[in-house]
Amino acid sequence: MNIFARKSLDELNEEAKAEGAGTLQRHLGPVNLILLGIGAIIGAGLFVRTAAAAAGHAGPSVTLSFIVAAVGCALAGMCYAEFSAMTPVSGSAYTYSYATMGELFAWIIGWDLVLEYALGAATVAIAWSQYLNKFIESFIGPGWVIPYQYCHSPFESVMIDGKQISGVINLPAIFILLLLTLILVRGIKESAVFNAIVVSVKVLIVVLFIALGWQFMNPANHTPFIPETTTIKDAVTGQEHAFGGLWGILGGAGVVFFAFIGFDAVSTVAQETKKPERDMPIGILGSLIVCTVLYILFSWVLTGIAPYQDFGDPTKGKEASVAYAIQTYMTGYGWLGRFITVAILFGFSSVILVMLLGQSRVFYSMARDGLVPKVFSELHPVFHTPAKSNWIFFVFVALFAAFVPDSVVGDMTSIGTLFAFALVSIGIIIMRKSDPDAPRPFRTPLVPLVPILAVLVCGSMIAGLGWGNWMRLAVWLAIGMVIYFTYGVRNSRVQLSRR
């Protein structure tokens, strides 16, 4: 048994060339990939986590948090682009790790990516639920709003008319997950068309908010721009963490990093791309550049319109924060708040779609390698999608969305993804040494400097997320190790072929 056995590039490229029954269909071009990336990137991270980072970590300097997160993503993005062009196979960071660091590290990454994709989908589904209530309130009436206890987890509570009400289950989150799973089962081509429509609407509302909100910015809300360093306690977990100063900015970067998750999801559909060696770098870096510019402007305007303290108050702007800022501070633009609420609902839907898509494709690759049960790689006889895998992950994600607060699953998503980014960056250095002559349609510049910087920036954001999230990551990885050594290593195709 060799737990560090590697897949060769030749093996990966043979898988990429496979066609016919039991293989994924190639339907996606560069525009589809950029839209897929933007579809995943612009969502709950921008419309929900921006306000959470401002209120809980960085204050107005959340704009700097976005810049830190963008730098880390850009550095890691170049590493992703090189790998995805070299090894155009479904599986993203999992596949890249298998080729560079061996099976054990590939398993760690594949298991870790559940935090990114599955819990990422759960986080956005919870945010979708929050904005659904804002939609009902605006278009139908306050009397029709879903009761608090049926759209929040059991770990959340609020004081209403002097009475404390606790959540029971988040039913709207389960509903949207079910609807989008049905779309995914139908097929990647139909999913891409739906995503393209939604992305157009999302970009429009971000640009509208920046353009129209600029005139309502209050300079006092940006003073001081970097709050004095202090310590605050998380209302849900009870854990203390830094607020303001450098550590507040880094902690905020770890939170808003969630907003950038998505560009790497492009790499999970390499096997469904017509010309992956050309189109994957375009899709990954193109979507990242577009979103970074929009994010910096958006966070600057949002914290200029409303004081960041409002975003920590559950009776004010903690939920549906963008709609709250518009309706409270942008007089005469109530129509924009209603329009944005509708658009955000659709926007969140596209993020969930891409997250669920990415998760099923990672486990598709892992199942083909024998590390998880074969059911995850079985394709629907008509739609040629991993339908059974989609349904299994619907149940898994729905449990988190229904019963866990968004602050917990959101930070778990961020730390899991940062960990994956760091390992992919290390993988580039290893691959340049182990396979220096392999064809590289796209080359990460300044190796090893760029990958090392990516690891350092991602590591600083992990540090900023605090010990509570470090412990949750450690527990999750420990569970993964138990599964690997009791099932994965015994059924691995690579292990079996070399005995």
CATH evolutionary superfamily: Amino acid/polyamine transporter I
Rounded radius of gyration (Å): 22 Å
C-alpha end-to-end distance = 8 Å
Taking strands numbered 1, 2, ... along the chain, how are they ordered across the largest sheet?
A: 1-2
Mean pLDDT: 84
Structural class: mainly alpha
Largest sheet: 2 strands, antiparallel
Counted by DSSP, the helix tally is: 17
Specify the overall morphology: globular
Domain module tally = 1
Name the poorly predicted regions. Answer: none
Number of strands: 4
- Tell me which CATH architecture applies here: Up-down Bundle
Order of helices and strands: HHHHHHEEHHEEHHHHHHHHH
The first-level CATH class name: Mainly Alpha
In percent, how helical is the residue content? 55-70%
What's the topology here?
Layout: H1 9-17, H2 30-41, H3 44-58, H4 62-86, H5 93-100, H6 103-139, E1 157-160, E2 163-166, H7 171-186, H8 188-213, E3 230-233, E4 240-243, H9 245-256, H10 276-305, H11 321-329, H12 334-368, H13 387-403, H14 406-434, H15 449-464, H16 467-491, H17 493-497
Antiparallel strand pairs: 1-2, 3-4
Helix pairs in contact: 2-8, 2-10, 2-12, 3-9, 3-10, 4-9, 4-10, 4-14, 4-15, 5-6, 5-14, 6-7, 6-12, 6-13, 6-14, 6-16, 7-12, 7-13, 8-10, 8-12, 9-15, 11-12, 12-13, 14-15, 14-16
